[in-house]
Design brief:
Elements lengths: L1 H10 L7 E6 L6 E5 L3 E7 L4 H10 L1 H16 L5 E4 L4 E8 L5 E4 L3 E5 L7 H29 L6 E4 L6 E3 L5 E4 L7 H13 L8 H10 L3 H8 L19
Parallel strand pairs: 1-3, 5-7, 8-10
Antiparallel strand pairs: 2-3, 4-5, 6-7, 9-10
């Protein structure tokens, strides 16, 4: 069954390195899907008509070629050569050493990261571990200092990798901060930190909340508009939620 598909792909000069074909007894129809992990995958129903399989695959050639390109581009983003933390004014140079799978932090904002040829996500996972520690080492002291200056106290701080929130504050006085804050400007980071600290006083967005907030950051409304242009999901692919769990 897969042979007919491979023949169609080869006739159209499709690179087979990022193609996977499997026969499924559970599939009801031909399925074409794409992911960074598996590349382009074609699932064929067990008793599918060979002629129809060939015809449909022929019609999907442009899609297959485009998806292959996306996978290649996406995988290249898993190994950045530079990492810029706008919040800290740091620009890290990243080098890769195939002989070692560890991560070394050198002088002058330099990283050396080992590669694992059998795991395309290896470098991204290592970078995520380093990034998580970096966020904890910087964001927690940062908000502690701001809280102390305002005479406020909270219960616990959690550094997370979230897709939709820069930060949050619970009724238990726990504050969650998105580690991706390191990618935005220091002023916007302080907007988020002061925003969550103000929730220790008012757990809503009432007029009293905004009055208290603006007493600390008079231009908080302007900063609110600016930060809405920076969405947590618009971050480098290597730092994205889910990559570490693959």
């Amino acid at each position: 069954m897969p042979a007919i598909i491979y023949r169609v792909l080869q006739d159209n000069k499709i690179d087979l390195d990022l193609i996977g074909v499997r026969v499924s007894s559970r599939a009801k129809r031909l399925i074409y899907k794409s992911s960074l992990l598996k590349g382009v995958e074609i699932v064929v129903p067990k008793n599918a008509d060979l002629g129809r399989v060939a015809k449909i695959t022929e019609a999907r050639i442009t899609w297959i070629r485009n998806e292959q390109r996306k996978v290649i581009e996406g995988r290249s983003q898993l190994k950045p050569d530079r990492i810029e933390f706008n919040a800290l004014g740091e620009n890290w140079a990243v080098k890769y050493a195939p002989q070692d799978d560890r991560l070394f932090e050198g002088d002058n904002c330099s990283l050396t990261l080992g590669l694992n040829p059998d795991d395309i996500f290896h470098s991204a996972r290592k970078l995520q571990d380093w990034f998580q520690n970096k966020a904890r080492e910087t964001l927690i002291p940062w908000i502690n200092l701001l809280a102390e200056n305002r005479g406020l106290s909270f219960n616990r701080i959690f550094i997370k990798n979230q897709t939709s929130l820069w930060g949050s504050c619970s009724v238990k006085r726990n504050i969650n901060l998105n580690r991706n804050l390191l990618f935005i400007s220091p002023l916007l980071v302080e907007y988020v930190l002061h925003h969550e600290l103000t929730h220790l006083i008012y757990m809503n967005h009432s007029k009293k909340f905004w009055k208290a907030f603006s007493s600390i950051l008079p231009n908080c409304k302007e900063l609110q508009k600016e930060i809405r242009l920076h969405k947590p999901e618009n971050i480098p692919l290597w730092a994205s939620p889910g990559i570490k769990d693959i």
